[in-house]
Amino acid sequence: xxxxxxxxxxxxxxxxxxxxxxxxVLELAEVEIDYCxxxxxxxxxxxxxxxxxxxxxxxxxxxxxLKIHSNYTEKRRKCPICLKKMQxxxxxxxxxxxxxxxxxxxxxxxxDRGELQDILNRAELDKDSKIQKLxxxxxxx
Length: 141
Ligand SMILES: [Zn+2]
Ligand SMILES: [Zn+2]
Known about the structure:
alpha+beta; seven-stranded antiparallel β-sheet; binds zinc ion
């Protein structure tokens, strides 16, 4: 079993949990996020989410509205940090259900292409928040 060696910085995902390719680190708005250029997936750890939202209350709110979902058809993915299978979590109550992957140990969250924007749109965050700018940089147009 291999995993990233421990340094004084945050843990870096071993590989994309979807397509198994190496992920790149994007440094934007003073935050490092891990991004897969092949499938467009994004890995965020809990601390990064907080910094991106610029407000710990918003981060808590966003995380607090996640409900673990056991009746799903999506394939379970491995956490890119601890390599254990992640849980499926439902965001909010609106339909169609928006499912994201969440590490049961709390390492972070995995968003497929478009899911993060979708969540932020539903959460009706401030348009000036760091995360909105960040996403506009990553996904122009
Ligand atoms: Zn990928
Ligand atoms: Zn994990």
